[in-house]
Specification:
Blueprint lengths: L2 E8 L14 E9 L12 E2 L1 E10 L13 E6 L4 E4 L2 E4 L6 E4 L5 E7 L2 E8 L9 E7 L2 E2 L5 E3 L4 E10 L12
Parallel strand pairs: 4-14
Antiparallel strand pairs: 1-2, 1-7, 2-3, 4-9, 5-8, 5-10, 6-7, 10-13, 11-12, 11-14
C-alpha cells in the first residue's frame, strides 16, 4: 500500500542543543511511497521560524518577581517519531526542546525554530515559583496552553502573550450516580 512519508533535513546536526541557531536551515517535503524506490525528491532549505512575545503577570495578592531575567520560556516538542539516515531525518519533523531567557522588560524570542508541534511553558525560579501558574499562552489570537503550537517552515509569530497568575483554578461540584 502507498502512504505519505515526511522527509526533513537540516543543514547541521542540532541534536542535544537547547536552541537552534538562526542560521540553521530546514527542509520538509511530503512524498508518496508505494514500496518502490523514489528518486528526484528535492528538498528546499529554508531558515527556521521565529517566535517572539512577552510574559505578563495577572496578580491578585502576589507581587510579580522583580527580576524577570530569571524566568525561562520553553517550547517542549510534542512527541515525534523519526529516524536519521546519512544526516537526513525521515519520519515526522525533528524538534528539540527550545529555551529562551526572558529579558528585563518581559520579552523573549526564539529564532531558528524547527518545524513541528510545541507546547509552551514558563519556568519561574524558586522561591516564588509556587505562587505563579501559567494561565494562558496566546499566539495569533489562539490560546495554545492546552493544545500545541504548530510551527511551519518560514512562519513568523510575533506578539505571543504568556500570562502568569497567582489565582488558582478551582473545580467543584457534586458527583451523583
Amino acid at each position: 500500500g502507498g502512504g505519505v512519508t515526511m522527509i526533513s533535513g537540516t543543514s547541521q546536526a542540532i541534536e542535544g542543543r537547547g536552541s537552534a541557531s538562526p542560521d540553521t536551515l530546514y527542509a520538509l517535503e511530503e512524498v508518496e511511497v508505494s514500496g518502490f524506490p523514489k528518486s528526484g525528491v528535492t528538498l528546499q532549505l529554508q531558515r527556521g521560524s521565529r517566535l517572539a512575545g512577552r510574559v505578563v503577570f495577572d496578580a491578585s495578592t502576589q507581587i510579580a518577581p522583580a527580576d524577570l531575567t530569571s524566568l525561562r520560556v520553553t517550547l517542549q516538542p510534542v512527541s515525534s517519531s523519526y529516524s536519521t539516515v546519512a544526516g537526513t531525518t525521515i519520519g515526522t519533523t525533528y524538534t528539540s526542546i527550545q529555551n529562551a531567557t526572558v529579558r528585563a522588560d518581559g520579552t523573549f524570542e526564539f529564532v531558528g525554530l524547527a518545524p513541528g508541534r510545541y507546547r509552551a511553558q514558563v519556568t519561574v525560579p524558586p522561591p516564588v515559583q509556587q505562587s505563579w501558574w501559567l494561565r494562558s499562552a496566546v499566539v495569533a489570537g489562539r490560546d495554545v496552553l492546552d493544545t500545541a503550537l504548530d510551527v511551519t517552515l518560514g512562519s513568523d509569530f510575533s506578539g505571543m502573550v504568556m500570562t502568569l497568575t497567582d489565582r488558582r483554578s478551582e473545580l467543584s461540584g457534586t458527583l451523583t450516580t
